[in-house]
Fold this protein.
Amino acid sequence: MPDTPGARRSDVAIDGSLPESQDAAVESTEARDLAAIERSIGLDESAAQRRFRQNVAVAIIFALAALTLVVIVRLGHAF
């Protein structure tokens, strides 16, 4: 098929003329690409979850420190 200036490869209709082995190879490559994308998304989600847990831990530490300071000030005023 001659290349025309406005045509792209994705614009061409597939008529099923590819041999079965090539068709299966294309599907296999697409499946591997999709699996790679799913793995990368999974890694991003776990990294986000890890950051969230770290932020929660830091927030709890600061809250406990503030509570400790409040208790110390209250006890200091009591005596």
